[in-house]
Amino acid sequence: MINKRGFASDNNAGVHPEIMKAIERANCGHVVAYGNDIYTERAVEKFREKFGDDIDVYFVFIGTAANVLSIDAVTKPYNSVITAYTAHLHEDECGAPERFTGCKVLTLSTGDGKLRISDVEKEMYAIGFEHHSQPRVISITQSTEVGTVYQIEEIRELSKFAHINNMLLHLDGARLSNAAVSLNRPFREFTRDAGVDIVSFGGTKNGMMYGEAVIFFDRKHSEDFKYLRKQGMQLASKMRYISAQFERYLTDDLCLELAMHSNKMAKILEKEIRNIPGIEITQSVESNMVFAIIPKEITDALQREYFFYVRNEMKNEVRWMCAWDTTEDDIMGFVKVLKNLMNKRNT
Could you count the other beta carbons within 10 Å of the beta carbon of residue 133? Predict the structure, then answer.
């Protein structure tokens, strides 16, 4: 049987006990549906403490919806969205951005998951020419899908470029808390203050049961979002159960505490892996994931003990994810199995 506490995804982890308690506390009596409740009011206030009073916050069920609907709010069907080829918008949304926004998603190759102006400039042509889609949004992920983290100045440069060219900067923050821990900076400093226009703020991968937030830093971009959320089937009738989670998640920096732990576990895993000859770590470990190339012939046996995903079958590059509940014992058990398999292979 596959060890359920594997390294496949931080989505596989359960709900943090404090978040579960928050859901239980909200499960009392009647409140007005669709977000007109005290739990949602308090959760939105928590976001305003982090990002500023003059923001709009909308809760949705999942990250795909947060990304797609936020882009839908600021684009027209003839627009395009520029993103990295590793981005969820391209690889993991099953074509949802194209279907629901009508926009063209333009992807750029990047070795470390991060976009740079020199990359984006390649798509800045035929502006105003009716035969080409018109770039409207640059979408970045923080931390990226390969575990790297944008530095504040890198985000600032992208946002300045976007605004000069009449575009907006969207940030997919499914693992935003992990990035905050890595940077050791407040959320606002590397989002709003760095020129980001819209953030998809995630919690599911870091101890919440479900729920994501879409944050608009300029309310002119969110004027019609309530209608888009409803049409997108993301208006929760019993929204208090999402809101109560976010209220606790953002209280006493629980979100950072959990992310700090998963980041720390990834660094321990990296350290142990580097001591095993024949394993090549391929990305800088800056958040809660480790990417490595391992011999193909040991992959199946290793997955039977600790499940994980092969991200690049050509190179047999794998991804090992740490979560808020990953333990050092988990890591040492995994490393022991990996070492044994490598020893057998080499003898």
Answer: 18
